[in-house]
Amino acid sequence: MLFILPRLCRQHLRSYVQSHIRQLTTGQPNVCIVGAGPAGFYTAQQILKGNPNAVVDIYEKLPVPFGLVRYGVAPDHPEVKNVINTFTQTASKDRCTFIGNVTIGKDISIADLQKAYSAVVLSYGADNDRLLGVPGENLKNVISARSFVGWYNGLPQDIDLQVNLDVEKAVIIGHGNVALDVARILLMPIDLLKKTDISQHSLDALSKSRIKEVIVIGRRGPLQVAFTIKELREMIRLPDCKPVLSQADFIGVDKLIQDLPRPRRRLTELMYKTCMEPTDKDVKLWKTAQKSWSLSFCMSPLEIFGDKDVTGLKLGINKLQGEDLVKQSAILTDQTVDMSCGLVLRSIGYKSIVIDPDIPFDTKSGTIPNKDSRVEGKPGMYCTGWVSTGPVGVILTTMNQAFETGKTVVKDINDGILDLTKPGKSDIFNILNSKGVQTVSFKDWENIDQFEVKQGEDVGKPREKMVDISQMVSVAKKS
Amino acid sequence: MSLSGLRRPVCLIPKFALCIGRSLTVPICAKRRNVPKIMSVQKFSASVPKPKKETVSLCFKLTDGSEHTATAKVGDNLLDIIIDNDIDVDGFGACEGTLACSTCHLIFKPDQYEQIHEKPTDEELDMLDLAFGLSDTSRLGCQVIVTKEMDGWEIEVPSGVADARG
């Protein structure tokens, strides 16, 4: 230990001095991040930690930060939103600036950012959703789950969503966590929802909902579901709601799962036990339940019926093919089944959009082509989070990836690959001022935050989100 | 309404996460054990009898090979110990001990794993299933309460891996 310690110190000192000399001779690393969600904040955190001179500016289209932590995480999962405390610490650092209410690609171009910053990190997520591509998809009450989530979470662009809950049966297409979030919100007792930060307009609509039955449909089988066990367990324990699983889907499944990795095994076991061996306590609870939800497997929508409003859908039955059980793919057979319903929610994944023609984009995968976060063919441009990987994983996945992106940027700074003579935000503010764009700082956001919390206190909620962008800006600027 | 009247003397923290009885002001760098942890289903350290002022010595081994010795009060949870001792693990304890993430993942030696008093609940195992480098002797630090038998234990702190990008 005595031998190692001085050596470590020397190495540390040397790299510190070297980085200082480099900065003195070549300038300061100015980094900008596009999108203030978890990917953006975790990347910023890592860059600020990894380089003591780096300045990081985080641009956000909305006047408010935190992306899907604010607008995606379900209102009944407040504990997941604790990550905001860490993001707030990051934003409160002197070398970090939040610049909200600026649309990159409209107010400021990517070329402008590249002129002003040594590195541009794109972390603007996945704003668009995948379509089923079947007849009838445009009928009334066929809704994207992404928009429905935005609607109940108060995302300004989704608050006017036309959703008719005066129906008894809803079908959700997709077996991911968003599908289960949406099912849970549709079926949850309204008294529980009232205590969350769910937006008032959706709480009003949900309190009048007549939905009693939700069917969650996936194209593959029980071994291929994409949701995670926490969300499944919540659905199974939902008060006044009975889970319905068909025994035919689970015969023999117990024999298949013993050799699977633990997460998949436990997830499948929970479905199996709920279906085949429910406890007496569960059975007793479910007996009196007024509502139900079911998981249906190996079905793909072929057509959605209805005149103006949706009345049902035609589903094709799939068979599964492939040796690796967990990766089996669905092959459509010629068998079909019709199902009636009054609401269809499409939850088959998101994709990103092109916000500026200067960003390379793979339209098939809906992501930015990159290698280890470095955007292909664009030195000084990086991407991270869902815009780089597609919409997969939980916040932890995004966090780990964003840390790696941050380390990559720091490495490129230290290796002298990036141009450190760029001026940083001053040039961008000149453009914004000339265009009359009203920016929102982190301090301004704190005004919004306090206002929302106060509005929430008055109605017994942790917050009541503002849903109007101009109101957000005006509250932000009052101090 | 006057907004200035709302300003609190402490650092202003968004109050998103306050649904279920959490403290209204969470100062930056809050010592997590001071924050009430109240949820209906899960078990939290707050329910465990506190503290006998006894301390034990623990050694945390990080993936970079470094070792950190920490003095831990019996009755505290291991997430708090790591935070309070400034052991720097990126992203550690992201949900602040509310059993909503798996960032406080720790790996124990098999015989020591068996000696931990509180066995993992289904909810803890559910979150662990999402952890990187999950092992048979993995636990979440926020759910493991220090006992005096733990004196001298070496505990591994795995970190996220780069292959998350798939």
From TrEMBL, chain A:
<protein>
    <recommendedName>
        <fullName>NADPH:adrenodoxin oxidoreductase, mitochondrial</fullName>
        <ecNumber>1.18.1.6</ecNumber>
    </recommendedName>
</protein>
<feature type="binding site">
    <location>
        <begin position="175"/>
        <end position="178"/>
    </location>
    <ligand>
        <name>NADP(+)</name>
    </ligand>
</feature>
<dbReference type="Pfam" id="PF07992">
    <property type="entry name" value="Pyr_redox_2"/>
</dbReference>
<comment type="pathway">
    <text>Steroid metabolism; cholesterol metabolism.</text>
</comment>
<dbReference type="GO" id="GO:0008203">
    <property type="term" value="P:cholesterol metabolic process"/>
</dbReference>
<keyword id="KW-0521">NADP</keyword>
<dbReference type="InterPro" id="IPR023753">
    <property type="entry name" value="FAD/NAD-binding_dom"/>
</dbReference>
<keyword id="KW-0813">Transport</keyword>
<dbReference type="GO" id="GO:0005739">
    <property type="term" value="C:mitochondrion"/>
</dbReference>
<comment type="similarity">
    <text>Belongs to the ferredoxin--NADP reductase type 1 family.</text>
</comment>
<keyword id="KW-0560">Oxidoreductase</keyword>
<feature type="binding site">
    <location>
        <position position="39"/>
    </location>
    <ligand>
        <name>FAD</name>
    </ligand>
</feature>
<feature type="binding site">
    <location>
        <begin position="219"/>
        <end position="220"/>
    </location>
    <ligand>
        <name>NADP(+)</name>
    </ligand>
</feature>
<keyword id="KW-0809">Transit peptide</keyword>
<feature type="binding site">
    <location>
        <position position="68"/>
    </location>
    <ligand>
        <name>FAD</name>
    </ligand>
</feature>
<feature type="binding site">
    <location>
        <position position="393"/>
    </location>
    <ligand>
        <name>NADP(+)</name>
    </ligand>
</feature>
<feature type="binding site">
    <location>
        <position position="231"/>
    </location>
    <ligand>
        <name>NADP(+)</name>
    </ligand>
</feature>
<keyword id="KW-0496">Mitochondrion</keyword>
<keyword id="KW-0249">Electron transport</keyword>
<feature type="binding site">
    <location>
        <begin position="393"/>
        <end position="395"/>
    </location>
    <ligand>
        <name>FAD</name>
    </ligand>
</feature>
<dbReference type="InterPro" id="IPR036188">
    <property type="entry name" value="FAD/NAD-bd_sf"/>
</dbReference>
<keyword id="KW-0274">FAD</keyword>
TrEMBL record, chain B:
<protein>
    <recommendedName>
        <fullName>2Fe-2S ferredoxin-type domain-containing protein</fullName>
    </recommendedName>
</protein>
<dbReference type="InterPro" id="IPR001055">
    <property type="entry name" value="Adrenodoxin-like"/>
</dbReference>
<keyword id="KW-0408">Iron</keyword>
<keyword id="KW-0479">Metal-binding</keyword>
<dbReference type="GO" id="GO:0005739">
    <property type="term" value="C:mitochondrion"/>
</dbReference>
<dbReference type="GO" id="GO:0046872">
    <property type="term" value="F:metal ion binding"/>
</dbReference>
<dbReference type="GO" id="GO:0009055">
    <property type="term" value="F:electron transfer activity"/>
</dbReference>
<dbReference type="InterPro" id="IPR036010">
    <property type="entry name" value="2Fe-2S_ferredoxin-like_sf"/>
</dbReference>
<dbReference type="InterPro" id="IPR012675">
    <property type="entry name" value="Beta-grasp_dom_sf"/>
</dbReference>
<dbReference type="InterPro" id="IPR001041">
    <property type="entry name" value="2Fe-2S_ferredoxin-type"/>
</dbReference>
<feature type="domain" description="2Fe-2S ferredoxin-type">
    <location>
        <begin position="56"/>
        <end position="161"/>
    </location>
</feature>
<dbReference type="GO" id="GO:0140647">
    <property type="term" value="P:P450-containing electron transport chain"/>
</dbReference>
<dbReference type="InterPro" id="IPR018298">
    <property type="entry name" value="Adrenodoxin_Fe-S_BS"/>
</dbReference>
<keyword id="KW-0411">Iron-sulfur</keyword>
<dbReference type="Pfam" id="PF00111">
    <property type="entry name" value="Fer2"/>
</dbReference>
<keyword id="KW-0001">2Fe-2S</keyword>
<dbReference type="GO" id="GO:0051537">
    <property type="term" value="F:2 iron, 2 sulfur cluster binding"/>
</dbReference>
